[in-house]
Specification:
3% of the residues lie in helices and 50% in strands. With 177 residues, the chain is mainly beta.
Length: 177
């Protein structure tokens, strides 16, 4: 029901619901396998989301399956915005404290960025892979340097317990009516 509620929020985005059929076996879930593929219209680089926010993007597609690189994969980078101030940055790479992952690194924000703990981070739409405005996470902590801000962002997605996700098939133009 959460997926149905989420997909109804933006009628311009076409979603394909998929089940998670496998997860990577490493300490953190950096790859998922879904039960949809070429026959259902899935292609590489498509965004994958859940009601809690962005999950990752499709990196490999078979006839009836696909593999998804999640936000927890150190190789995935995502162009994002601070929702309240519209300041742009990049998200990617995990922040660790000992053996525990704390969150994801937000970097390349301008030095004058308006950023506070609790701010919502959303996709910027730049690069064309992720539609603009998808929730990514919430700022957990902020540190500033001389030229840029860095922050730790936590996702509401429970990657270890994901059962169903949505593949973003495309975004249609609003009719303006």
């Amino acid at each position: 029901s959460e997926i149905l509620d989420y997909s109804a929020q933006d009628p311009n985005v076409q979603f394909l619901t998929a089940s998670v059929v496998a997860r990577s076996t490493n300490a953190y879930v950096d790859t998922l396998t879904l039960n949809v593929g070429l026959r259902q219209g899935v292609a590489e680089k498509m965004a994958v989301i859940a009601p809690g926010g962005v999950v990752g993007r499709v990196v490999e597609v078979g006839t009836n399956w696909c593999k998804v690189k999640t936000l927890l994969n150190d190789d995935l980078r995502l162009s994002v915005l601070v929702e309240s101030s519209r300041d742009e940055g990049m998200l990617g790479g995990c922040i660790w404290s000992g053996d525990a992952m704390v969150g994801l690194q937000l970097y390349y924000l301008p030095a004058n960025a308006q950023l506070s703990v609790g701010d919502t981070i959303v996709t910027s739409g730049l690069g064309g892979l992720f539609p603009k405005g998808l929730k990514v996470g919430t700022v957990l902590s902020v540190s500033s340097g001389s030229e840029t801000y860095d922050a730790c962002v936590v996702s509401e997605v429970d990657f270890a317990h994901l059962e169903e996700v949505m593949v973003v098939l495309g975004v249609s133009e609003g009719t303006g009516e």
